[in-house]
Amino acid sequence: MRAARLGLVSLIVATMALTACGRNKEPSLMNISATKSTPDEFAILPNKPITQPKNYAELPAPTLGGSNLVDPTPRADAVKALGGNPKRLVATGVARGDQGVYNYATRYGVAGNVREQLAAEDLDFRRRNNGKVLERWFNVNVYYSAYKKQSLDQYAELERFRKAGIRTPSAPPEGYQAPE
Questions:
Q1: In this structure, what DSSP letter does residue 51 have?
Q2: Gap between the Cα atoms of 148 and 28, Å rounded
Q3: Long-range Cβ contact pairs of 140-144 (< 8 A, separation 24 or more)
Q4: For the purposes of burial, counting CB atoms within 10 Å of the CB of 77, is it exposed (0-12), middle (13-18) or buried (19 or more)?
Q5: 86 with 94: CB under 8 angstroms?
Q6: pLDDT tens, residue by residue, 75-91
Q7: Phi/psi zone of residue 139: left (φ > 0), alpha (ψ -120 to 50 degrees), beta?
Q8: How many Å apart are CA 141 and CA 36, to the nearest integer?
Q9: What is d(CA 99, CA 105) in angstroms, rounded to the nearest whole number?
Q10: Which residues are CB-neighbours of 60 under 8 A, at least 6 positions away?
């Protein structure tokens, strides 16, 4: 009897060890658990090196949205890092060539708190679609099933555009996985 129990325990341990070796194809950032925070991809720009001022009394007072002694031109630096021309930026932060697109996109106004509103709505959505009990216990990725209704079928859209006579670039074949 003792040998049977030992064999059962060994089998369970071996099974768990083998399943731990499996490769997860979905990135961990895709887990939409509301308790986790994800990185802000817009904040990943390197700053210039910090320097110590000669006289702390002569430092300007901090202003909300003002320039920074370490990074006086963050928007222009971001445009340059992404391959654009920072000299083409106008006061609104939109390149001169893109002003027409910007005006069309903002023709009904622009919400100033769109990031906060979107973050609150997404947090509420993630709380309502956090997976079933066993999915939460075993930390199963429910990202794709939660956002399935909001996803776009890229091949159906590509076919729709082509039937409408709109020139489209080629697309990778269905099931194509980009190398990591």
A1: -
A2: 18
A3: 141/24, 141/26, 141/30, 141/31, 142/31, 142/32, 143/26, 143/30, 143/31, 143/32, 144/26, 144/30
A4: middle
A5: no
A6: 777 778 777 777 777 66
A7: left
A8: 13
A9: 10
A10: 69
Contact predicate 86/76, CB 8 Å: yes
Q: Which two tokens stand for residue 126?
A: 């993630």
How would residue 40 be classed by pLDDT, with cut points 50, 70 and 90?
A: low
**pLDDT value at residue 23:** 56
If you average pLDDT over residues 35-62, what whole number do you get?
70
Q: What DSSP character marks residue 125?
A: H
Do residues 29 and 38 touch, judged by C-beta distance below 8 A? Answer: yes
pLDDT recorded at residue 37: 60
Q: Concatenated DSSP letters for 84-122?
A: --GGGB-TTS-BGGGHHHHHHHTTT---TTHHHHHHHHH
Q: What is the pLDDT of residue 88?
A: 73
Q: What is the pLDDT of residues 116-162, one digit of tens each?
A: 998 899 888 888 887 777 777 777 777 778 888 888 888 889 899 99
Q: Round to the nearest angstrom and report the end-to-end CA distance of the chain.
A: 49
Residue 107 has pLDDT above 60, yes or no: yes
